[in-house]
Amino acid sequence: MRIIDLTHTIHPAIAVFPGDDPIQIDHVRTIENDGFNNYRLTTGMHVGTHIDGPMHMTSDPRLISKLPLDRFTGKGVLIDVRREKQIELKESYRTMIQPDDIVVFYSGLDIYFGTPKYFTEYPNITEKLARFLVAQKVKMIAIDWVSPDHEPYPIHDILFKSNVLILENLTNLHQLLHATNFEIFAFPLKIEADSSIVRAVARVN
Fold first, then answer.
1. CA dist., res. 41 & res. 39, Å (int)
2. Cα dist. 121→79, 85, 180, 198 in Å?
3. Which of 13, 43, 50, 106 has the most neighbouring CB atoms within 10 Å?
4. Eight-state DSSP code of residue 180
């Protein structure tokens, strides 16, 4: 068994989506002055590796803390979409992807994380593929780029209205290329918010 970290490190200079507030990490107590260390984090929930919950872009009133824990873990299926500009439904997906899977799309674009192009030059998942994923009743899609679509975000709407979550900004997916059996764990904070930052990992069996 191997555990692979799929999470970007949160640090004071981490890039945020254009228009979002930058994060702050403050060392507010020190051993020298206070006898203990403590840090304060001020952040939005869509920084770095995070899960979008349905409340993020729909009228669904459920906070992410109210979603069942089993939605955040499950059997992973890796789809290699490197160099694809539009991510289309392929016939092979019909047998690869099963109910309750977490579908992980590997683009390799995580190497650009923190650069301006990361937030603009990324592929869209097509509506046909999104509706197929909904029909297959997958738990979640997971991507190593910033969003499965561009404004006005129609794919978010399709997935959220069918209770499919979106895990964004993964890294290290190349380590899963030859894994035939792995699980994804991406638990959010138990926080009363629309979405949450996460520590996402894969367990390769």
1. 7
2. 19, 9, 30, 24
3. 50
4. S
What would the two tokens of residue 135 be? 């029909």
Question: In Å, what is the CA distance from 48 to each residue of 16, 53, 85, 126, 170?
Answer: 7, 15, 23, 24, 8
Give 56-99 pLDDT, tens digit per residue.
999 999 999 999 999 999 999 999 999 999 999 999 999 999 99
- Give the pairing type, strands 102-106 and 140-143: parallel
- Distance (Å, rounded) from C-alpha 106 to C-alpha 4? 15
pTM (whole model) above 0.90 = yes
- Indicate the domain borders of the chain: 2-7+45-204
User: What is the DSSP secondary-structure string of 14-80?
Assistant: ----TTSPPPEEEEEE-HHHHSS-EEEEE--TTSSSEEE-GGGTSS----GGGS-GGGGEEEEEEEE
> For 2-7+45-204, which CATH superfamily applies?
Putative cyclase (3.50.30.50)
33: tokens are 């002055």
Torsion angle of the four alpha carbons 79, 82, 85, 88, in this order, in degrees rounded to the nearest 10 = -20
